[in-house]
Amino acid sequence: MPKMIFVNLPVTDVARSTAFYEKIGMQKNPKFSNDQAVSMVWSDTIYFMLLNHAFYATFTNKQIIDAHTTSGALISLALDSREEVDAIAAAAIAAGGTEVHDAEDLGFMYSRAFADPDGHGFGPFWMDPAAAEAGPPDMAHDATAA
């Protein structure tokens, strides 16, 4: 079995969140979805689990944050082009999300930022493959140094 990641997100309205994630290109997996939790497929190995607060609370004894006012995680999404970055950001905003800041173009990397209707932060980005191999220019390092 390949290594997979399941990002569990507490949401206030499962149906609204499902519609949002479908509009930004994810697909609902009905086998692992019901009225309290919905599985959204990003890729063959990455899933977003949208859990209503009552169900989410069964997995933790910690307080559920309000992601509109408290940052618990920022989720970066690697995409294949600048155009895909712009497209997912535009879709997110049209679907009820919020643009967090203007596009950032560092030459070797291009990114946007948006929050879903519950305030969870996303950073779709594209990185030039050669730059990804070399690493960011301001983080030059000597692989032989200890």
UniProtKB/TrEMBL annotation:
Pfam families: Glyoxalase. It comes from Sphingomonas aliaeris. SUPFAM superfamilies: Glyoxalase/Bleomycin resistance protein/Dihydroxybiphenyl dioxygenase. InterPro entries: Glyas_Bleomycin-R_OHBP_Dase (IPR029068), Glyas_Fos-R_dOase_dom (IPR004360), VOC_core (IPR037523). Gene3D superfamilies: 2,3-Dihydroxybiphenyl 1,2-Dioxygenase, domain 1. One of its GO terms (molecular function) is lyase activity. The keyword Lyase applies. The keyword Glycoprotein does not apply. PROSITE patterns: VOC. Residues 3-127 form the VOC domain. PANTHER family: BLR2408 PROTEIN (PTHR36503:SF2), BLR2520 PROTEIN (PTHR36503). This is Lactoylglutathione lyase. Keywords: Lyase.
